[in-house]
Structure formats: structure tokens, C-alpha cells
Amino acid sequence: MRVLHLVSEKTWRGGEQQVAYLIAELQQHQVESYVACRRGSAFEAHCKQFNIPHLSLSFSKLALFGDARKLKVYINRHHIQLAHMHSSLAHTLGVLSHVLGARAALVLSRRVEFSIGRNPFSTFKYNYSGIKRILCVSDSVRRQMAASIQDGSKCVTVYSGIDLEKAAASPTRNFLRSTYQVPQGVKLIGNISALDRHKDYFTFLETAKLLKERGIKARYFAIGSGPLEAVLKAQAVKLGLREDVVFTGFLKNAKQVLPELDVFLFTTVKEGIGSTILDAFANRVPVVATSTGGIPEIVRHGQTGLLAPVREAVALADHVQRVLADPQLRDYLTEQAYKLVLTFTQEQTAIRTLAVYKEVLGVG
Q1: What is the pLDDT of residues 212-255, one digit of tens each?
Q2: What does the DSSP assignment read for 277-320?
Q3: What is d(CA 212, CA 288) in angstroms, rounded to the nearest whole number?
Q4: pLDDT tens by residue, 300-317
Q5: What are the C-alpha distances in Å from 65 to residues 6, 72, 93, 310?
Q6: For domain 165-341, is the CATH number 3.40.50.2000?
Q7: Cα–Cα distance list, 346 to 20, 149, 157, 167, 210 (Å)
Q8: Which of 17, 120, 286, 332 is the most buried (most CB within 10 A)?
Q9: What ranges do the domains of the chain cover?
Q10: Does 165-341 match 2-161+345-361 at the fold level?
């Protein structure tokens, strides 16, 4: 089986990691993987490093038709049987190449909880007949997608998975505490995600303020970068948290420092599934998160973590305080979460994805 993955983003985030996992696992099942990626992107570098056959394109909105023609030629020349589109822009390019004559079945991944656009082209591309399946990262995303398109039966749930061995191996000992001079006895509470609006670090900061007012001795880590970094730093100062919140920026060893946290505090307002939560599970770090999107499908309140409504800083602070004060609760939550994450591996994601490929192509 020959599959081409369309990866449009410049940077490397959770979606790109999922594609990399998928390609590696599919190789174990004798699937030949090809990639169409953005020129100069992190994924292009990944393809070069691991000798993955790839086509580099501009993925510029101004050059979409030119890119689509190149993609059509590449697909037909290499006898690609199925093209897997992994983002909105990849979706657009894949559909255009198919309209122009690319002879490959199309499948689409949907990892975000956002509503689809209502303009005529969005309506066209999401209902395009050449798309045989839409792989949704959670049941929540699947329900939303199924209600938004003409043929909701195309939508299936395929959960993201993690590399369990890497996620739970070789932690960086005391990196946060030593690098940022955090005294012993001060708890470490953090989030690993982009500093953008839908991750809602504003509520993260409000929660930190409440915990500080309650006498909780903690340092709060915002691990990531993004467009709201300057605004969030100013907000932290405004809330009197200048010395309490650390904005680390992007950390290459983010997953390795995760085990240092006493609580993983995830305050997003929209989320397909939250693969970093799975990493926290793998490292037995207790999770307090907002009940949105696909998160309740993995953070089961009182069993694998604690949930609070979106933007409810008081409830989030209550949950964090409860976890810190109750070692038995912490141990129970982390043990149950670890058992659950054993079923959310990259191997399982690949097996379920391959089953969809075979169904679409009509092969055994």
C-alpha cells in the first residue's frame, strides 16, 4: 500500500508529531509512506533526516493551484493509492489535486474542535465526494463534524497515541527547579502548550493567583511559546505573579521535564483530545483540566484526573489544592491514568488508521 501524507505546517507541534508516529508505525505494516510538506518546514527536515520520500511545496495560498498540479503529478507518477490530509490547508491542496486528476482516494484527519467555515469553498471541500473518511481525534470532534457535513457516516474516531517508552523514559532530573532556582518545598505546577488564545493561559494565571492567596507555595510554569506571550507576561505582573510564574518559552526537553511537575494544569477552552495529557498520564503526573472537547474522554473525573468547567478558576484551584493535600487521591488518579494510557499508544493509532485505509481501498 502506498500512502501520501499532506503536512502543511511550518512548525512542529502535536499534529506533526502524530504524523511522524503514524509513518513510523505504518512502516511496520509494510505501508510505503510518502510526504508532501512545506518547503523549509520542520517536517521537511524530519523527512530528510529519516529518508522519507517527499515533495516540498510552498503551501502558499497564492500558489495553491500550482502546488496542486505538482501534487497531482507526484501522486500519479508514484502510483499513490491514498492521500491522507492532516490539516486544513493540506485538505484544500488535496482536494484541488484530486479535482485536477490525482488518482488517489482521500482521507482527512480532524484534530481540532473548531467549527468549519461557512464560506462556499469550505462547504465544498468538507463535502467533497472524493473524501472517503474523516478521521476524528475524539468522539466529541466526530459528533461535531458529523453534524456539519452532508454525510456524517464518513466520520470515524481514531484517537491520538503517544510513544509510551519515550514519554515515560529518561526524565530530566531537577531541570526546572535548578534552572529557575525553585527552593525545595515549593510545588511545581505547569502547563505545556502554545501561548495562544484557545489554550487560555489567562485562566491558568487566575488559578495561580487564587492558589497564592490561599497560601499554596508553588511556582507556575508556562512551557511553550506563542503570539500571546507578551500579553500574558504583562497579565502575570498585573495579578501580582511576577515572581511566581515562569514563562520558559519553547523547551526542546518539555516532555522530559514533565515528570518534575506536581500537577499538570490544563486550562484550554477548545481541545480535540490533548496529547500532552496522555504524556502526563504516562509519567504519573496528576492532571487537573477543563471539561471541553475530547478531554473528558481521557480525563475521567475522579478516576484519571479532575475536571472543571471552562474558565472556572475557582474550581480549578479547588482541584489543584485537593490533589496537593491528598497523597492517596494523587496516587489513585495517577495509577488509573497510567492504566488508561496503555491503550492510547502510537501502535494502536496506526492499527486503527490502517484499518480505515484498508476499508477505503477495499483490501484485506
Answers
A1: 999 999 999 999 999 999 999 999 999 999 999 999 999 988 88
A2: HHHHHHTT--EEEE--TTGGGTS-BTTTBEEE-TT-HHHHHHHH
A3: 17
A4: 999 999 999 999 999 999
A5: 15, 10, 8, 41
A6: yes
A7: 10, 28, 15, 11, 38
A8: 286
A9: 2-161+345-361, 165-341
A10: yes
How big is the chain, counted in residues? 364
Cα distances from 324 to residues 38, 230, 277, 285, 306, in angstroms, run 44, 30, 18, 12, 12
* pTM, rounded to two decimals: 0.88
What are the start-end ranges of the E strands in 86-157?
105-110, 131-136, 155-157
Contact between residue 218 and residue 191 where contact means Cβ atoms under 8 Å apart? no
pLDDT at 166: 76
Q: Which amino acid is at 90?
A: A
Class of domain 2-161+345-361: alpha beta
Q: Is the pLDDT of residue 142 over 80?
A: yes
Q: Give the whole-angstrom CA distance, residue 316 versus residue 308.
A: 6
Residue-level pLDDT at 288: 98
Residue type, 295: I
Q: Cell numbers at residue 56, please?
A: 516540498
